[in-house]
Amino acid sequence: MNIEVVEVGPRDGLQNESVIVPTAAKVAYVEALIGAGLRRIEAVSFVHPVRVPQMADAEEVMARVPRVPGVRYAGLVLNERGLDRALKAGVDEVNVVVVATETFSQRNQGMSVDDAVRGFGVIAGRAREAGLGVTLTVGASFGCPFEGEVDPARVAELVRRCPEAQEVALADTIGVGVPSDVRRLVEAVGEVSALPLRFHFHNTRNTGYANALAALEAGAAALDASAGGIGGCPFAPAATGNIATEDLLYLLHRSGVTTGADLPGVLAAAALIEAELGERLPAQLGRAGIWPVTGP
Amino acid sequence: MNIEVVEVGPRDGLQNESVIVPTAAKVAYVEALIGAGLRRIEAVSFVHPVRVPQMADAEEVMARVPRVPGVRYAGLVLNERGLDRALKAGVDEVNVVVVATETFSQRNQGMSVDDAVRGFGVIAGRAREAGLGVTLTVGASFGCPFEGEVDPARVAELVRRCPEAQEVALADTIGVGVPSDVRRLVEAVGEVSALPLRFHFHNTRNTGYANALAALEAGAAALDASAGGIGGCPFAPAATGNIATEDLLYLLHRSGVTTGADLPGVLAAAALIEAELGERLPAQLGRAGIWPVTGP
């Protein structure tokens, strides 16, 4: 069995850290990740720098990261202005977020869900015309910090309304999901869409790795993770971030699932960004050690 | 669906913390746990105080904890001297550890596996005669820090040789297991024993909660956890401890599994021991918050 691991540390990870990491360190982080065999990297966000100052150097990052055959870079895009920047910066794919609930959509993107869906259609159409890959990420698919429970049928309805997507990513933005939620979502979305499914988990309440395995078992094609587990949760400031790439790889590889990525290499990338951020990161493998001990 | 959660914070948790917690605080922790609806508590260890000074006050703890109808206290016992203390102290059940590998058995208990199996028979016989419950814990069931991989057949063979047990606990002492290991162990042990299975997971490499769910799905009757996630791993000093009771309850309850325990109550117990230990504990729910928000 095989699954694609999408490295989101440089984008979702660093975006939610209070430290603003210099461009050179971001590029070094990306280089280390590529060295570790990761082939799909969400590297930047084209959200307005006033809202996300951590990503203000998106163009510069994209200009400096190595272009390696087989490596695809994604950028997060929320509107046409962001898409213009993404096209100019030369990403390979765009990740466009539509939030599942009205309140969160208004607070996160300053627009209604209907407007976000319409916007998605325009962005996706233009991006595909330009030859870019297009991911629809449904934010707050597992629960909303403002509205509480989110019905999987509501998520499925959103997916149905965004047929321009080439991939659907279901995001547990606030880290509240459990494996039975994953299965319900896969079922609901599968009724309206045959697109490959990708999952985005935060380990905010220690359910992220169980969810990842549940997604794999339910047929997901890809899983997001961040080397070091960086990122945090914007709605629970003291909580941990994305599931960590190294801990996910340990779980997957020991479960007999291949990823193409190299665990010691990811540990090196995580150590690099840990030193840059100057704080103890949520990933555990770096402290506990690979087992049985392998590598040099 | 229902599963029993065995609270091991007062024993395995506090035993692996560098701080020695005063008896009164241990008793308050136990009281808070009982207040949270936990009904089976591994409260003390009767290992020699020179080896585990954190548990030197076992007798005093047992003399001071409340005796509440329906609440059962367990004590860890490694030899007959420990059993004598356990009998005198008035625990309801003993947890006797036999380690799956030769090297670990020698280093942990100073005896061969054969001697440990013989010792188990003697201890279990005497304990059952005295009316105590007897758990066989197979240490390092998922892997050994000295010998590496552990064949589930080896674990099953140990279980077969200890028919005096009334319950079998399979311990991932160093936190290396994954859900497929859980399933293999359940299958292997199930071939030689019909005893109820209990699992003891450490979240050392972030696989603990996925393992807990896998154990539940494979038919386990009980899961160990420690409020606060205290404990650490003696073989990876920087790593986290037992899976946390509150994070486990969140996962189970949201998965539709009942435990009889009360999440806000466990959070209160964890806050109490966190203040006592004076360090940020691995449990996440206290920082992230129950979701959707419940309670007073």
Automatic annotation (TrEMBL), chains A, B:
Gene Ontology MF annotations: hydroxymethylglutaryl-CoA lyase activity; metal ion binding
Alphabetical GO biological process terms: ketone body biosynthetic process; L-leucine catabolic process
Pfam families, per the entry: HMGL-like (PF00682)
Pyruvate carboxyltransferase domain segment(s): 3-267
Keywords from the UniProt entry: Lyase, Metal-binding
Gene3D superfamilies documented for this protein: Aldolase class I
Coiled coil: none
PANTHER family listed in its UniProt record: HYDROXYMETHYLGLUTARYL-COA LYASE (PTHR42738:SF7)
NCBIfam families documented for this protein: PRK05692.1 (NF004283)
Family listed: Belongs to the HMG-CoA lyase family.
The name this protein goes by in its record: Hydroxymethylglutaryl-CoA lyase
Source species of the chain: Streptosporangium subroseum
